[in-house]
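QA checklist item 7 of 12: single-chain prediction sanity check.
[x] sequence parsed
[x] length recorded as 726
[x] structure emitted
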Amino acid sequence: MVEILAPAGNLNNLIIAVNSGADAVYLGLSNFSARKSSQNFNFEELKYAINYAKCYGVKVYIAVNTLIKDIEINEFIESVGVAYSYGADAFILQDIFLGKLLKEYYPEICLHLSTQAGVCNVYGAKMAVEYGFSRAILARETKLEDIKAISSIIETEVFIQGALCSSFSGHCYFSSFIGGLSGNRGHCKQPCRKRYTLEGNDKFNGYLLSLSDLCIGNDIKTLIDLGVSSFKIEGRMRSAEYVASAIKYYKGILNDTVTTDDFINLKKTYNRGDYTKGLAFSQTPNFISRKIQNHKGYLVGKVKNIYKDVIKLDRVTTFTDGDSFKILRNGYEVGNAIYKNGAIKFKGNVKLNDEVYITKDIALINQTENVKREKIKVTIDVYCKVGEKLTLTANGVTVSSSDVLSQAKTSPLTKTDVVTNLNRTDIYPYNPIVNFVCFDENVFIPKSILNNLRVELYSALFNINTVKISDNIKKYTNNSILDNSSEKSKTLISNTLVSVVDNLIYLPNDYNKIDFDKLSEVQKTTKVYLYLPSFLTGEDLIIIDKIVNNFNGVYVDGYYGLKYAQDKNLNVFIGVGFNLFNSYGYNQLKKLGVKDISISKELSEKDISTNFSNVNVLSYGENVVMNLAYCPFDKNCENCLYKSCSYIKDESGRKFELFRYKISECRFMLFNCAQILTKTQFNNEIFAIFNKSEKDIDYVINKLEFNDRKQHLKNHTYGNYIKGVL
């Protein structure tokens, strides 16, 4: 069965999604949601939301897909338990190890692995299955051939509509290092949506990292043929009319009833960059929305006449008071307007022939608010007899009065009274059909009793999905497998083959062109691990398979890498991009026999020292804040703008280096404008140095003490080691 999965950022949007025909909805709790900026749900709202959806056969998935600290684990377990007891169908997690922990508490729980976990190849899928997940929400960058292969291993869910993250899923630290607001913790401030300029080429500027919105359209059928089960609409922070329009559009495609107006309405509700089909279908020229980073809307005409603060269009169109517009020239915003009292009143530098796009359609908003779903018919058997209790029964649920009924002295209860009372369904979506099994014509019932029974019956019917869980949930305690080794080690992440450290993590400029003679020379004194990036396609893996046995092991920045190392019997070095955030994951890695473990660079020194021992800590050098699976230079290979060292600058002049490497195709890392520098109390330091000579690396690793390093760097940050992230 094909599932259209809709976002619900609040209760109103959930009701709209259900009423609009969604097969399933996903929502976040007040805590542990990767969309902290959306309204999300408290437990009272959640209970109603789940039951409302269940009334119409719509599934509810709960997103608890942030990285969890040790001090939060017990609250996390309890919160999931409450939502599970309400009847939630599945839980979306980023931390694959915490999935295993939840299975220990709630063995029958259904788990979906978040796109933040970066499943992009078959090894990620195998890892998900091994840790108890029944579905993988694929990384948005996953290739079509890999989608097919993964779908043969585990049920898959893919994004078909909405915003695209610039960085590879779960591996963006841009917001985190700007102000401690981590995207992995639901607090992303979207610095990717700001203006940048390519250094040395002022013509290459604008929203250089802001991607157009995704719209798969009819290619949803291609994905169905590849074995995908669920199709996800992104947008928990978007409007109700967006949710309704997206559902109608894709349902129309699946049912062959879609119209041109359906697509137009979708563009009106939110449209950044006139849409892209995403990297699964290869990078296209409009993949990056360089000229406009927010809602563009739908073109309704060009400016034909200008009268003071009023414009007229070159075509006749009907508008409603309150409609809003954006005015563009050559794709750039030059003004905005609102329809009021029969005229389009504008602000800005507007000229003739500028394009006018509607961004807020009041008629569409009103239409969405009026979307209703037929109430559910429920037959209620009424047993009403003098000397016995009043009983109401529906769908196997029975409620009875506490006292027996007496004979009426005056004003006996009538059947009309009962029907009228039961028709007051309040917040419950029921259409009662009253069946009088037994009814004495001369019985007295206080209105309060009938009212209470009605509410009790509807409440019991509505909450019938409740799952019983243990009342005695044990507390999680950190039983870390501590490694008290006092040996110090220095690890270097570099694109240069050097032998001045204990461990070298080698990220080749080109995985197809490695100097294996030099590699062998370095390995006489240094262990060399091949860098496995967070994003790796099946085509990339073919290349990796050919070279990996020349190395001492692999350094992995994603879950798939751990499974790959296990299957290939390789030594594994857990990278800083693996996002290890709590002691439970640390314990699981230790149980697997993993010796070299790096801690997340988003944790504070206090977090680390309290819960871990003998872990590797990124302490000096270039800090990757984004991993790009696309070409930021528009994939114009013949006239590539990338140089040996390219930078983009923000509007305040800060420079961010772009580092390019190649496997089956070019990939990019974006480094922070300031290098990381921290003095840790841990034995194992990681240095990250790219585009440097071997002499520079030798000097930094072996000669500089902490205070000297500070002077050596022009710009540096202590990162998150002081305060950590929210």
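[x] summary fact logged: The longest helix spans residues 240-255.
[ ] second reviewer sign-off
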